[in-house]
Amino acid sequence: MKGKYEIVVKNNRLHYEFEIKRNITILRGDSATGKTTLINMLRQAENLGSSSGIDVISNAPCRILEGPNWELILEHTEGTIFFIDEENAFVSSKKFADRIKNSDNYYVLITRENLYTLPYSVDEIYGLHCSGKYHNTKKMYQQMYQIYSNHQRLPVVPEVLITEDSNSGFKFFKAVATEKGISCESAEGKSNIFHILEKIGKEKVCVIADGAAIGPEMDRLYKYASNRENIYLFFPESFEWLILSSGLIQGKDIHAVLEHPEDYIESRDYFSWERYFSKLLIEKTKDSYLQYSKTKLNEVYLHEKNRDLILKNLQGIKLENTRTKESNNDEF
Questions:
Q1: Neighbours of 203 (CB within 10 A)
Q2: What is the distance between the alpha carbons of residues 65 and 83, in angstroms, rounded to a whole number?
Q3: In a 3-state reduction of DSSP, which class is residue 13?
Q4: What residues does 44 pair with on adjacent strands?
Q5: With contact defined as beta carbons under 8 Å apart, do 88 and 47 qualify?
Q6: What sign for the dihedral angle of Cα 29, 32, 36, 38?
Q7: What are phi and psi of 90, to 5 degrees?
Q8: What digits encode the pLDDT tens for the residues 245-272?
Q9: 3 state DSSP class of 160
Q10: Hey, which of 2, 166, 205, 328 would disulfide with 160, CB 3.0 to 4.6 Å?
Q11: Which of 281, 261, 282 is nearest to 273 (CA)?
């Protein structure tokens, strides 16, 4: 399943409208924000049809996934957008993650939990709010909004870089940081980022990680960074996405993919968009001087022209030579 889906769920009093474009979407928020009502409306529409008085408008079937037979339902269903309420304990289980990994469905998970078994994007974590579209009527108009839309509190000139893992992305930033006299450390996994941040002093720190799968860690990272003026978060889709977006790799098809990745990424093939961009970059550079490997950095990406194209894509992050700054300070 791929593509973007506009969904409307409405009756004579309530109107929900939103878009779904990835295999996993998280919908969260406090009580009385309309999440449970949305589930109930979808359940009534599914069970009672037109007699429910509820219209569900979507180019893909919308269903509720719940109860003890959830595995059997998944086994025999594809091309469907499933909505799952947090009352279903299976949503946080490894078994659920394994079942949906190669699934041809989309999933909207209504939960306040951080689901560490799932690789969901920071950009697909939403809340619900009531807009003023029907301000002069009794109808309530509910829309989704990105909870972490301002998570990249930039610009910044960092003194320390922290990357998510130790693959080519870390090796690239480590080489650039060393040249600039900046410290660069690998967290060796997204779950370790928070623990490294706790050891940081007053230096300006920029965390660079794959936004495509950082969602489970985002709640505590965002809260921690919000309380520390020296911590900045930068979450592009992935390091491979940064390279593809830099213009270094030519091709109209690449531009098309970057403009609307949801139209190209099959949910059954790619649990996370990061994996798709990795495969795309490897395929587009195969047998060329830019040949890319996720585990071993091709030194050609550190050549000045290529390096600068990639760094230019780090909007809001300026890597300055700290040695030069220290030298200039010594003159005074």
A1: 12
A2: 6
A3: coil
A4: none
A5: no
A6: negative
A7: -65, -20
A8: 999 998 889 999 999 999 999 999 999 9
A9: strand
A10: 205
A11: 261
The stretches of the chain forming alpha helices (DSSP H) are 35-48, 70-75, 94-100, 168-180, 193-197, 215-226, 239-245, 252-259, 273-285, 304-312, 322-330
pLDDT exceeds cutoff 80 at 46: yes
- What is the pLDDT at residue 30? 64
Confirm if 152 and 233 have CB atoms less than 8 A apart: yes
Q: Give the per-residue pLDDT at 102.
A: 92
The CA distances from residue 125 to 115, 141, 214, 225, 263, in Å, are 12, 19, 11, 18, 20
Q: How many Å is the Cα radius of gyration of the chain?
A: 22
Give Cβ neighbours of residue 211 (< 8 Å, ≥ 6 apart). Answer: 121, 122, 123, 235, 236, 237, 238
Which stretch of 15-24, 26-35, 85-94, 100-109 has the lowest confidence by average pLDDT? 26-35
Work out the average pLDDT over 69-87. Answer: 94
Mean pLDDT of the chain: 89
Phi, psi of 11 (to 5 degrees): -135, -160
Give me the residue label for tokens 């990745």.
Answer: 261
* Maximum distance among all Cα pairs of the chain, rounded to whole angstroms: 81
pLDDT score, position 171: 96
- Using DSSP's 3-state secondary structure scheme, residue 213 falls into coil
The structure's pTM equals 0.89
Which is nearest to 328 in space by CA: 173, 178, 181, 201?
A: 181
What per-residue confidence (pLDDT) applies to 135?
A: 43
Q: How far apart are CA 265 and CA 138, in angstroms?
A: 40
The answer to whether residue 217 scores a pLDDT higher than 70 is yes
Residues 6+ apart with CB under 8 A from 90: 70, 96
Are 316 and 152 within 8 A, CB to CB? yes
Q: Which residues contact 307 (CB under 8 A, 6 or more apart)?
A: 172, 176, 301
Among 93, 91, 82, CA closest to 39: 82
**Does residue 33 contact residue 128 with C-beta atoms inside 8 Å?**
yes
Question: Rounded to the nearest 5°, which phi and psi values hold at 41?
Answer: -65, -45
The DSSP 8-state label assigned to residue 23 in this structure reads S
Residue 139's nearest CA partner among 42, 249, 12 is 12
